[in-house]
Design a protein that fits this description.
Length: 850
């Protein structure tokens, strides 16, 4: 244990204030709902005032807010949000209310402190359309947002392409810059100005925010128009509107500003501190640094975990005193001050048994309360169902992708297999009779084909021998690209490091997977002769068994396993005392593959002298009784890997769903046993390369001491296997493939400017004129059946009876907006390019927009 100790004086909460608020507000939480959903309060004159749902996402900079989120699994998170100009009294009151609310809910919620502009991914995930920072606060007259109120004049500066924030700024051209998006809101009309250096994703996010303002604050009655910066001449009516409010547009606007928040993470390691009271002073003593183990946490105490300075987490033991638990948040803030970390440093407070996923990920292993233990069992991970170790129905895997994800099995391994070896940097087909035999001096490509829902699917494994040359490893990657191209980019690519073979890889060789330590399997090459070879056999059935060559010495033996010792004249099948009947049966089957010699069964403790002579003499080995192993319980985590801002960065996506997979980027999904790299159709090659490097660094530097050879699986958009989709709730397999079945006949509709549409909602209203009302041409479109636009999901693959009212089933393409049609088309452009030339030309003529 480290002797580093901090003593912080007078950091306990003001007990008198706490007690007074508890007595005065013992009825404050009677209206707190325990059903799933979001509830928000603002602190006004030391009282909690509820915020109406139509105002959710709006935060006054001079106020503090309390946000309660209850999930469908009844877990709760409490956030208190600190505005940039809020007072110390308001911040203190909010912190006390959070403590009270935590006690009211039984002490199980995770508490978060959020600072304006530095909100956590989880907090931002509640507000999918973005956060709006408003000037002033309760003291300036705010009560609530009134629906249908039009006496508004404000300019919102919108930043971000995934986590959007909109800040009220001076209503002037001087607030504009070339890289961001600005919304001029006058109540009955909202005009969006897109900076010429902003990208498509940012523009769409801003439209969603504008529509959210229209629908929640204006009852859906406000008009929305869009102006492209640098091409203002194309929107003369809207520019007249802007210049009327803002004055003439200057010739030059400010240059773009970076969206990146400065990285405040320190360069030190993850550290755990014990927190306790010493005569009124808070003492923080270092306990350990990464990798951390769960047994360091004691139920009788509270601990602070410092995540490299990027966040500070407080863990409250069940048996810690009430004073210690109530003062947890204050202690974290005092620690931040003592370490001189930024005031914006993220703070999380959690109780024993209610730890957050990120907290668990910082430990080498983690076992939850009531978690089943035992060899070969798996456990409940988030929404993934518990499964048993044994036979399974392939149809069940296809029907329930969450089981496929949990098993790491796309099917029952009954598909077709083809294997190549790298010879002279080229592909050489392997004789099917030797399938399953892999030599440490070679590299192999294994193509597995199977069908799901009648569609052909592929997995391409790249197995790299431990002793293969760098040229051979590079050649295997190059040849994998060639095979991938041959199958039009459909294969899921999996990098397999020798000895780290994933479960499905074992299964496809039906209990006959043999890993030779060195040498080569190339025809005509004679491997060096050995007096004896020793193979360790692990597995209980043909889906999980492999034999791995180990050093032929007594020290390689283990009482838990089966071993095959192969000599020139005889082979010994050695059964350790800890192996079971299934393991012995698989060992016997594997021995028939490895050796044609006479086999002699040897039980541990009954070895003949010749057995030890072949191993170079009798010696000690791992003979302890088999321990029941605990499978680590870790929730999956999703990260966005993007170069959109000009600098490659990785950002976590909290409470993720399929809609968070950004086609412009590469996404990293960490399921602990595997890393998935999801490649969006519009991502850059540079992002893919950097994402792979970052994935390796992620494993290498993970504070839990992760295995750097954890399999990395490449998944392309539109070709996701169930082992990937199973980690997402309600995966839609048609999300990116609907356009393939859509009639590409786009007929221009309407007059003047068109619009943008949020998923599932109507097109934004046509551009307002100078008075803020729609133009006559737009009005005529709105009054007729034409000019209405719908989400493609409401149109594609629908029978006439299933279509929205008024839609002509023979002209469904007319009900897609121009932008939405082009955006959808861009997501499948790679598929289009794979079509025959005659088909491409035919579609070009029909679409008229290529």
């Amino acid at each position: 244990m480290s002797t580093s100790i901090y003593e912080l004086v007078n950091v306990q909460p003001k007990e008198s204030l706490f007690s007074r608020m508890m007595n005065e507000n013992n009825n404050a939480f009677k209206n707190v709902r325990r059903k799933p959903g979001l509830q928000i309060w603002t602190v006004n004159k030391m009282q909690m005032d509820p915020v109406p749902p139509q105002a959710f996402g709006n935060f006054f900079e001079g106020d503090c807010y309390i946000v309660l989120y209850v999930s469908s699994r009844q877990s709760a998170d409490i956030h208190y949000w600190v505005g940039r100009t809020s007072s110390q009294d308001e911040q203190g009151a909010a912190a006390i209310y959070v403590t009270q609310l935590d006690e009211y809910l039984g002490g199980s919620p995770v508490q978060y402190r959020e600072v304006q502009g530095y909100e956590s991914p989880r907090f931002r995930s509640y507000f999918k359309n973005g956060l709006i920072y408003k000037k002033g606060g309760v003291a300036s007259g705010f009560n609530h947002v009134e629906t249908n109120a039009y006496n508004v004049l404000r300019l919102l500066h919108v930043k971000g392409r995934k986590d959007v924030t909109a800040t009220e700024v001076e209503v002037s051209w001087s607030s504009f810059n070339k890289g961001d998006i600005f919304l001029l809101d006058i109540g009955k009309a909202i005009v969006q100005w897109n900076g010429p250096q902003s990208n498509r994703r940012e523009k769409l996010k801003a439209v969603l925010l504008a529509q959210d303002i229209r629908d929640r604050e204006r009852g859906g009655r406000a008009q929305i128009g869009v102006v492209e910066g640098g091409d203002e001449r194309s929107s003369p009516e809207l520019m007249k509107f802007l210049t009327t409010v803002l004055g003439p547009k200057p010739a030059q606007l400010k240059e773009a500003t970076s969206d990146d928040v400065p990285d405040s993470a320190q360069k030190n390691s993850v550290r755990l501190y014990h927190v306790y009271d010493n005569s009124g002073n808070l003492v923080i003593q270092e306990v350990a640094k990464q990798p951390l183990t769960q047994d360091l946490l004691k139920s009788s105490d509270c601990f602070i975990l410092d995540n490299k300075g990027s966040s500070v987490m407080v863990w409250k033991g069940k048996k810690a005193s009430k004073e210690e638990r109530q003062g947890a948040m204050n202690r974290a803030l005092s620690y931040i001050k003592a370490k001189k970390y930024p005031a914006s440093t993220t703070v999380e407070v959690m109780a024993e048994g209610a730890e957050s996923a990120i907290f668990k990920h910082l430990f080498k292993s983690w076992t939850d309360r009531d978690q089943t233990q035992g060899l070969g069992t798996t456990h409940n991970v988030g929404k993934i169902a518990k499964v048993d170790d044994g036979k399974f129905d392939v149809m069940e895997l296809h029907a329930r992708p969450e089981l496929a994800a949990q098993y790491r099995m796309v099917d029952d391994a009954s598909g077709d297999v083809k294997v190549w070896c790298i010879e002279n940097l080229e592909l050489a087909e392997i004789d099917p009779k030797t399938y399953g035999q892999f030599y440490g001096g070679d590299c192999y490509l294994v193509l597995y084909s199977y069908k799901r829902a009648g569609q052909q699917q592929y997995i391409l494994y790249m197995w790299q021998g431990r002793h293969a040359t760098s040229d051979e490893i590079a050649a295997s990657a190059f040849q994998a690209v060639n095979i991938d191209n041959k199958y039009n980019g459909a294969p899921v690519q999996v990098r397999v490091v020798m000895g780290k073979e994933p479960r499905h890889f074992l299964a496809i060789f039906k209990g006959k997977l043999i890993i030779f330590e060195g040498g080569t399997g190339r025809p005509g090459v004679v491997n060096p002769a050995k007096d004896a070879r020793l193979f360790q056999v692990r597995g209980t059935n043909e889906l999980n068994t492999k034999a791995t060559e180990v050093v032929a010495r007594a020290a390689s033996l283990s009482s838990n396993d089966v071993f095959l010792l192969k000599t020139d004249n005889i082979s010994y099948l050695w059964y350790g005392k800890g192996c079971n009947g299934d393991e012995r049966e698989m060992g016997k089957a594997m021995s028939d593959v490895l050796s044609r010699h006479e086999k002699r069964v040897v039980m541990e403790g009954q070895e003949p002298a010749e057995f030890w002579i072949a191993l170079g003499g009798k010696g000690s080995y791992a003979s302890d009784r088999r321990f029941e192993r605990e499978e680590p319980l870790h929730s999956p985590r999703l990260f966005e890997c993007s170069n959109q801002t000009g600098r490659f960065k990785i950002t976590e996506v909290d409470d993720f769903a399929q809609c968070d997979l950004d086609e412009d980027d590469v996404m990293l999904l960490d399921t602990w046993e595997e890393l998935f790299l999801w490649i969006g159709n519009s991502s850059y090659e540079y992002e893919t390369k950097e994402a792979l490097n970052s994935a390796r660094d992620y494993l290498r530097t993970h504070p839990a001491g992760r295995d750097p050879d954890t399999p990395i699986v490449f998944v392309k958009q539109g070709y996701e296997p169930p082992t990937f989709t199973g980690w997402f709730n309600a995966w839609d397999p048609h999300k990116w493939s609907d356009l393939k079945n859509t009639k590409l006949n786009k007929t221009p509709v309407g007059g003047g400017g068109g619009g943008y549409r949020a998923p599932g909602g109507p097109l934004t209203s046509p551009p307002p004129n100078k008075s803020g009302m729609s133009s006559s041409s737009a009005s005529s479109l709105s009054s007729s059946g034409a000019g209405r636009f719908f989400d493609p999901e409401l149109l594609v693959n629908k029978t006439p009876d299933e279509l929205p009212e008024g839609v002509d089933p023979t002209q469904k393409e007319d009900y897609l907006s121009d932008l939405d049609f082009e955006n959808l088309l861009s997501t499948t452009r790679a598929d289009f390019q794979r079509l025959p030339k005659w088909r491409q030309n035919d579609l070009k003529k029909k679409a008229g927009i290529f």
